């Protein structure tokens, strides 16, 4: 089996996490997906390319497996991130539109989930945790910026159109307020875009799990509407270079500002 994660080690205090850009599905799992599931529609398409080269010496940790294998941004205990709201679980049974992704009778059972936790979820998070500790040892502080995207219209998950920038800090719990404010300042000044802080997406399990400001680890999630960088939010989910170039200016500004804040966060 190929590696379930890819790492680029850098010396910046920032770590970029990519839990949902992977598209690899082992054959024995892929054959259980139905035609809808095999589209892999809920991928965070091209996000690792969108952020590529924006910040010198940044560390990246990317899951190569698809979220339909197991979702690297969900609580391994299976606890819902948004109780009472529609969402998808640790191993999704449906896509973001509420449509089945597995062939009848071939959805994952408890043994499947346990094996995927062991073989995919745990190794990814072990790698991410190790990089956080390595970076914190260098700087006395580490900032995890978790990179995500999602279609701008998904009635099953939220009403209306999603803002372009969706900043998640679990209501300010996962990072110092200066990080949150620096990010929001860039977003609010980005002409032609809109954004929200702790709206529908308040940060996934990764952000909530690792964000411990009192221990010198800060975490923030950025969920981008895919309309900001894709030609269309439908197959083949092609990257739009012109859109992406406009967006990358603001993403770089966010990362640079956060990096500048890091030295003042040492405990």
UniProtKB/TrEMBL annotation:
GO terms for molecular function: N-formylglutamate deformylase activity. Its EC number is 3.5.1.68. Signal peptide: none annotated. Keywords: Hydrolase. Pfam families: FGase. It comes from the Bacteria. Transmembrane segments: none annotated. This is N-formylglutamate deformylase. It comes from Rhizobium aouanii.
């Amino acid at each position: 089996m190929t590696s379930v994660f890819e790492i680029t080690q850098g010396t910046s205090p920032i770590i970029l996490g990519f839990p949902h850009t992977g598209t690899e599905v082992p054959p024995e799992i892929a054959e259980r997906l139905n035609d809808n599931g095999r589209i892999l529609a809920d991928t965070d398409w091209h996000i690792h390319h969108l952020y590529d080269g924006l910040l010198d010496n940044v560390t990246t940790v990317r899951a190569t497996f698809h979220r339909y294998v197991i979702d690297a941004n969900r609580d391994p205990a299976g606890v819902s991130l948004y109780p009472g709201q529609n969402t998808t679980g640790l191993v999704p049974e449906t896509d973001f539109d509420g449509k089945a992704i597995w062939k009848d009778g071939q959805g994952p059972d408890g043994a499947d989930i346990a094996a995927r936790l062991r073989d995919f979820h745990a190794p990814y998070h072990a790698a991410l945790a190790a990089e956080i500790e390595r970076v914190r040892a260098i700087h006395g502080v580490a900032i995890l910026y978790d990179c995500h995207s999602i279609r701008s219209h998904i009635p099953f998950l939220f009403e209306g159109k999603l803002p372009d920038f969706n900043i998640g800090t679990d209501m300010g719990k996962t990072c110092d307020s200066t990080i949150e404010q620096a990010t929001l300042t860039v977003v609010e000044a980005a002409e032609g875009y809109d954004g929200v802080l702790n709206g529908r997406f308040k940060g996934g399990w990764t952000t909530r799990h690792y964000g411990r400001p009192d221990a010198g680890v800060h975490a923030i999630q950025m969920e981008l509407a895919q309309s900001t960088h894709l030609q269309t939010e439908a197959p083949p989910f092609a990257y739009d270079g012109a859109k992406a170039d406009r967006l990358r200016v603001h993403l770089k500004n966010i990362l640079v500002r956060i990096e500048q804040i890091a030295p003042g966060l040492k405990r």
